[in-house]
Design goal:
Number of strands: 0
Strand content: under 5%
Radius of gyration: 20 Å
CATH topology of one domain: 434 Repressor (Amino-terminal Domain)
Shape: elongated
Number of helices: 5
CATH superfamily of one domain: lambda repressor-like DNA-binding domains
Distance between the termini: 40 Å
Helix content: 40-55%
Order of helices and strands: HHHHH
Structural class: mainly alpha
């Protein structure tokens, strides 16, 4: 039985919508029809439409396929590349949490 989808916060929804708008703009700049991109990506035209609208149910794999068709696949490498918060925490040199030993 499928699990109930988790709620999507407004800020997350807005980011997905902006990403969809950027993908649509990239497609149109290349003068590709939705049918062409969907076919080359191996997805349905409806899935592409949902992506361009920011539907949170679309999988990351489908985004990767469309990015590849648009020759933007390198953009995915920028995600979480500069982990500023993680580096700051690492620099604090906080002691690692102690592991509990199992009782004999």
């Amino acid at each position: 039985m499928p699990t109930k989808p988790q709620p999507v916060f407004a800020s997350e929804r807005g980011r997905l919508e902006q990403l969809g708008q950027r993908l649509r703009a990239a497609r149109l700049r290349r003068r590709f029809s939705a049918e062409t991109v969907a076919q080359r990506a191996g997805i349905s035209r409806m899935t592409l439409h949902r992506m361009e609208k920011g539907d949170p149910a679309v999988t990351l794999g489908n985004y990767l396929k469309v990015l590849g068709v648009l020759r933007l696949e390198g953009d995915i490498d920028r995600i979480a590349r500069d982990d500023e918060l993680g580096r700051k925490l690492q620099d604090l040199e906080l002691p690692a949490p102690r592991s509990r030993k199992a009782a004999p």
